[in-house]
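User: I'm curious what two different proteins look like when written out as structure tokens. Can you demonstrate?

Assistant: Sure. I'll show them one after the other, since each token string lines up with its own sequence. Here's the first protein:
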Amino acid sequence: MTPHGLAIGSIPPPLGLAYLTTPGAHPVAQIESAAGAGFALVGLRLVAPVGLRLEHDPVADPRLCNDVAAALRSTGVRFFDADALTITPTIDIAALRGAVEVAARLGAALVQVVVEDPDRSRAAARFAELCDLAAPLGLRVALEFMRWRAVRTIDDAAALLDLADRTNATICLDCLHFVRSGGTPDDIARVGAERIAYVQLCDAPLADPGDAGLLAEARGGRLHPGEGGLPLGALLDALPPATVLTVEIPRAADAGRAPGERARLAYDATRAFLAHRRHPLPAPA
């Protein structure tokens, strides 16, 4: 078993459908879309990121929470990552208890966190408090770094984990954010691959869009694995084979597609990419 309680008997490991691949969809539709496409895991949004609205709120709506639990049971899809809690300068971690408890009740493996507090010591203390809230419920806390946030790079994330000093603290590595923040596969070994709980897999053009274009690219300009120029093969080679992969591919071009179609396209493209990596075409003579 992995540290997340997931079986690793099959190679490659089970794939997860990240929330942003079908953004805004009803959580039951997300679960059913994941199951229909072939995903074993699903990510669900329980708390709206700062500045955004959450249309379907299973934390505030007990009936919806029960519907989500029923969909997970009936499909066999596992709730993997609860997206996404934000640590701000004024956050009251106790206010996140409801979301953490719902994540645990629904069987999540971890909660994902981003940091918007530039005071690293204060942010680490709040992060540690959240880890302490999650630990008795069997949850890990995965810190995601992004170039436009206070925790920008994998080194920033590792430094905050060192300050927090909690055994259930870990890192979420988004391939796009990793490359756009200057990360290379060598950085994974230096920081410690064992500190990375999972990878959010996607592709993108190799050319950096610049600071002004980062947010639009992250929320609508990603590509399916193998369609862009990110060094995905080298990145995955730097990680243990059993590392969980969740597919996070929000594409503006898919705006008119139903959640099930988005999920199927993402799953098929990702499986084709992974199969090609395991069975590469022979080099030309």
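Here's a second, unrelated protein for contrast:
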Amino acid sequence: MKNALSAYDRFDTWKPKAEKDLLEAHRILMSGLIDEAGLYRHGGVGVMAGQQVIHMAPPADRVPHLMADLFSWLAVTDAHPLIASSVFHYEFEFIHPFADGNGRMGRLWQSLILARWNPLFADIPVESLIFEHQGEYYQAIQESTQKSDSAPFIAFMLRMILDTVTSSTPGVAQEVTPEVRLLSVLAGEMTRQQLKEALGLKDDEHFRKAYLLPALDAGLIEMTIPDKPRSSKQKYRLTDKGRQVMARHGGGKLATDSRHGL
């Protein structure tokens, strides 16, 4: 955590197209955690899902060349920053240039690219965008790798960005909790599946723990059949407290169904 704070203190001084700045950022972020902080890896590395290897990164001796090519592309591309930053992020994760900290660095560098385009992203970093969607994040990376096409990852990131910038502003971002986002899509009485789909979520367990249970525990929503919580006909609706919370947030729809967006 201290390393992360130190890294973000230097955020404004780094240039997205400067490879030396990326190495410095990694040195600060991983200081005291790994021996190769600030250096490209010298050995092989793979991405694991349990006991299964889902991605074997390129050999270590190719990393400097691949990273130089990636930075050269970033320097000359005319792609929109939203697209270019997502492509950079995916290609960075594919190369996996460091022994550790690749996920954090990829997200940090996309934030940096976006913040140089629009200062809004200094207040809403990519790390925050995907905090609630980590399963989908890794799934999008894996899908892009399987297809040898960064499009699935780009689409995922654009959806996260759209959802975030339409659901909050820097001044109120900390108030827009998962349960408040759930309230914003709750219209009348809705089933669990309808709520999950309206939020653009796929992971049922994550939806239950991060959204549904906190909203129920806080008394913001209630069951339509409280004496049969597992009923197949169960639906959820706002309570008076939930309506008051929505009123404090302007009564508007804080979350947008990203399927109608980018």
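A detail about the second structure: Residues 2-167 form a domain with the Fic-like fold fold (CATH 1.10.3290.10).
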